[in-house]
């Protein structure tokens, strides 16, 4: 639709202009720093940062009802800068001009309801939010759209030149960063650091295909992260991990889309997200808190953070019921099928601590919960979900397993509906499905396939007297008919078909 076709009271608000007063706010010492250059930690105390709009209160004057109408009407616009996450421009990056927005099709991913069989298995109705339908096939594109749009703004309007975008990754971050960097005609190149031998072939192929320099480091993700942190502190690079506060800002769009899809009534939802580097759960919490503050929603949904037993530092932290006694300790991770969440020392942990406290203050102690699940539960849940019409990755399996566990433990009210995060596309993790079907998991994964969930192709054999087109052999028409008749009878036998 064109602007003039919208209601008159909405027209002035449809196309936003740059506004607001943004700063980096330190979660350690509370210092505020200008955003004229990229910062990843506080120059004073080295703590992580969040981005704060010091002129936020101007947005409250609009009222929740008007904001809902603005966001809903923007969904019908065709302007690229407002098609994706920036239809929530005022909440995500209101200082960025629309001409600097980098849009590759991210955002507006679908909610797909579980069928009756899967909902019964989980114990409650729920939806998968399929973030694997983003451009690079994961939720990371939300944060990259924000981080690269701000980078583009610095290049276009503040003279920044020759930027090297760099990240550590278990796969999805590298794919997203390399994709968005490759969209720039000039001025931006990319490099990614991956843990050697711990990224699926599909994920490795993505940054290579986008032209990034791919460097493999011995160890796990946490080791790669330490290297890129050192680089970001000592060299002129643009760090694209979730330590970059602009990444968190873009990932808040996940919460905004959920609210919009439920007509802004999220009071009976439980949103389940995996906890890896803790950037995603940080963004989800921050997003819903912003919506509540602007009266766009009237109550907060519950948020469920899920971790594997093989990488569970956040779960262990919140196992201590007394907040005064909690002490965060990194863990040494073990092999996990949920590779994107296989992180023992999440860089966004200080953000989680701060935001969980705020969220529980407003929504009650049960508003944020954390559970851990086994590797067996992760794989069984992923396989079963995809057996029932979904395209969930292992992290999606992790979230479903966590939601099911929360239901079984009585942490989910009888009227609550789940929203389960499938962070990436199933095809990125097809190697784990293959291992499951072939019973080929290494012992350290602690996964034993359930026979009823396994699947494998069946070969239609042709005995010697039946002509076969195998090996590229060209059959005469009579021979080919003999082959078709034989193959059809075998298929009918295997499938239990009876002639009508």
Key descriptive features of the protein:
Rossmann fold, 3 domains, 500 residues, alpha/beta, six-stranded mixed sheet, four-stranded parallel sheet, single chain, 38% helix
The average pLDDT value, as a whole number, equals: 94
Largest sheet: 6 strands, mixed
Strand order of the largest sheet: 4-5-13-10-11-12
CATH class (first level) name of the largest domain: Alpha Beta
How many individual β-strands?
13
Number of helices: 18
Q: Which structural class is indicated by helix and strand composition?
A: alpha/beta
Number of domains: 3
The dominant shape is: globular
What percentage of residues falls in helices of 4 or more residues?
Answer: 25-40%
The third-level CATH topology of the largest domain is Rossmann fold
Architecture of the largest domain in CATH?
Answer: 3-Layer(aba) Sandwich
Radius of gyration: 25 Å
Distance between the termini: 52 Å
Relative strand content: 5-15%
Low-confidence stretches: none
């Amino acid at each position: 639709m064109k602007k003039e076709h919208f209601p008159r009271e909405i027209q002035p608000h449809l196309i936003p202009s740059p506004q607001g007063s943004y700063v980096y706010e330190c979660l350690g010492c509370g210092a505020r720093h200008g955003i004229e250059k990229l910062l990843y930690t506080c120059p004073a105390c080295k703590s992580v940062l969040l981005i704060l709009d010091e002129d936020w209160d101007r947005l409250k004057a609009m009222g929740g009802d008007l904001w809902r109408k603005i966001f809903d009407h923007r969904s019908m616009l065709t302007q690229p800068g407002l098609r994706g996450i920036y239809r929530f421009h005022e909440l995500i990056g209101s200082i960025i001009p629309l001409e600097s927005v980098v849009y590759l099709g991210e955002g507006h991913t679908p909610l797909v309801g579980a069928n009756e069989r899967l909902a019964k298995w989980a114990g409650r109705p729920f939806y998968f939010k399929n973030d694997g339908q983003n451009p690079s096939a994961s939720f990371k594109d939300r944060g990259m759209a924000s981080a690269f749009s701000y980078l583009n703004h610095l290049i276009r309007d503040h003279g920044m030149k020759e930027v090297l975008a760099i990240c550590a990754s278990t796969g999805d971050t590298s794919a997203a960063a390399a994709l968005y960097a490759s969209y720039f005609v000039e001025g931006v190149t990319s490099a990614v650091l991956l843990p050697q031998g711990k990224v699926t072939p599909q994920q490795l192929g993505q940054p290579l295909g986008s032209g990034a320099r791919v460097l493999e480091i011995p160890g796990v993700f946490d080791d790669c992260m330490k290297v890129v942190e050192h680089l970001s502190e000592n060299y002129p690079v643009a760090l694209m991990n979730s330590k970059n506060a602009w990444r968190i800002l873009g990932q808040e769009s996940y919460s905004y889309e959920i609210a919009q899809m439920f007509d802004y009534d999220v009071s009976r939802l439980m949103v389940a997200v995996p906890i890896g580097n803790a950037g995603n759960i940080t963004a989800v919490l921050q997003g819903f808190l912003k919506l509540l503050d602007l009266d766009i929603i009237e109550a907060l949904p519950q948020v469920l953070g899920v971790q594997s037993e093989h990488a569970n530092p956040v779960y262990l932290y919140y196992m201590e019921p007394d907040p005064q006694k909690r002490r965060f300790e990194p863990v040494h991770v073990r092999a996990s099928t949920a590779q994107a969440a296989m992180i023992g020392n999440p860089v966004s942990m200080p953000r989680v601590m701060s935001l969980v406290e705020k969220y529980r203050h407003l929504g009650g102690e049960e508003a944020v919960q954390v559970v851990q699940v086994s590797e067996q539960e992760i794989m069984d849940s992923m396989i079963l979900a995809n057996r029932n019409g979904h395209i969930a990755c292992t992290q999606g399996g992790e979230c479903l397993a966590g939601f099911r566990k929360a239901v079984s433990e009585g942490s989910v009210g009888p009227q609550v509906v789940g929203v389960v995060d499938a962070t990436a596309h199933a095809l990125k993790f097809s190697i784990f499905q293959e291992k499951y079907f072939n019973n080929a998991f290494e012992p350290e994964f602690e996964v034993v396939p359930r026979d009823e969930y396994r699947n494998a192709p069946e070969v239609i054999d042709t005995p010697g007297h039946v002509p076969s087109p195998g090996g590229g052999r060209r059959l005469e028409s009579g021979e080919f008919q003999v082959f078709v008749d034989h193959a059809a009878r075998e298929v009918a036998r295997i499938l239990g078909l009876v002639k009508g």
